[in-house]
Amino acid sequence: MATRQRTQTTLTHAGRDPWSNHGILNPPVYHASTIASRTLADWEQREAQRFESYTYGRTGTPTSDAFETAMAEAEGGFRAVSMSSGLAAVTTALSAFLKAGDHLLMVDTVYGPTRRFCDAMLKPFGVETTYYDPTIGESIADLIRPETKVIYLEAPGSLTFEMQDVPAVARLARDRGIVTMIDNTWATPLFFRPIEHGVDLSIQAATKYVCGHSDVNLGVVVARDRETFLRLKTTATYLGNCAGPDDLYLGARGLRTLAVRLAQHQKNAMTVAQWLQTRPEVDRVLFPALPDDPGHAIWQRDFSGASGLFSVLLRPAEREALSAMVDGLALFPIGASWGGYESLLMPANPARYRSATPWTGAGPLVRLHIGLEDPADLIADLAAGFDRLNGRAAA
């Protein structure tokens, strides 16, 4: 029996078939809307096997197959569905498994636009959302109702990086027939494979680390089994949600170097995070890969690595001082869409996005994405920023 390939090898090879494409290693880009049938029988067969053959550019081409096959194999799932953005992947997955009268359990530390979709779109359509503490673990059973249909996870949490006991939550949900889905953008399948831990759908903003160059909008959802896939794919088709061929090509290309890039992101992030822990201006570094992080034990148990994204809680400082620090940084432009090769900084106020778990940090919070620059240069830039924060001239 063949040994299952490790994820790094899968990312390098899955979705490619050069021998059916004149030996060309990378899959071709199909720009297609209309897909013609030569005969009535061919047309009828394609219609009968709508998601198994090519019928219309929006429902799939060899280009989308290449990316989706690679993602499904990397995640250990049945099949994947690609979409126009990470948020489109989130909203389509939720729409596929919720209807009026249903109840959704949503982690309180979820990505802000996901929360807005729950409050502004699902609520008017009759879906009730309860936000829960990300550290609740098996106690989430106390929040489950007869009408609970979906439990949504994100580990680590957006902005504040709390870890969730994913296997425990998934086990409880499965025993009660509840669908679980998780935003796996931070870890990617290289560092965490949610389906192996019992989750039904793994969602990623491939915009981030998968593509890796800050120039693509792309989302993908990997489904555990055929039934889950068909429900997801049908909903995406009804909503007209699809990804463009050039973005799919760049997504597939990005997978080939994901392991190399993430290894460097992780190494650089650990160097910068550990240095930040020594600074008197820093209250806490929120990064589950650090041994003293509250979520470290779960991260160490379930994850095989960490990406380059974490937050820093600073000690109380006036806005003018924070502005002096941030505005003068040379290597950390302010930006929200992380995962590219470059470092970024984003000021954040977690209190705006909480309802179940109050945020008690006294100082300003900044989220850092540590890119592929030399960490010594990043540290020097941040050190000069702290000098400005403290009202001293940078050396």
Task: Give a brief description.
The protein contains 13 helices and eleven strands.
Set down the secondary structure blueprint.
Blueprint: H1 7-13, H2 40-48, H3 62-75, E1 79-83, H4 86-97, E2 103-107, H5 112-122, E3 128-132, E4 148-154, H6 166-175, E5 179-183, H7 188-191, E6 201-205, E7 219-223, H8 226-239, H9 245-256, H10 258-276, E8 282-286, H11 296-302, E9 309-314, H12 319-327, E10 344-348, E11 365-369, H13 375-389
Helix pairs in contact: 1-3, 3-9, 4-5, 4-8, 10-13, 12-13
The topology string of helices and strands comes to HHHEHEHEEHEHEEHHHEHEHEEH
Report the sheet-strand fraction.
Answer: 5-15%
Rg over CA atoms:
22 Å
* Widest sheet, order of strands: 1-7-6-5-4-2-3
Q: Please summarize the sheet with the most strands.
A: 7 strands, mixed
The total beta strand count reads 11
Number of helices: 13
Structural write-up:
There is one protein chain. The chain has 395 residues and is an alpha/beta fold. Helices cover 36% and strands 15% of the residues. The protein contains 13 helices and eleven strands. The longest helix is centred in the C-terminal third of the chain and has 19 residues.
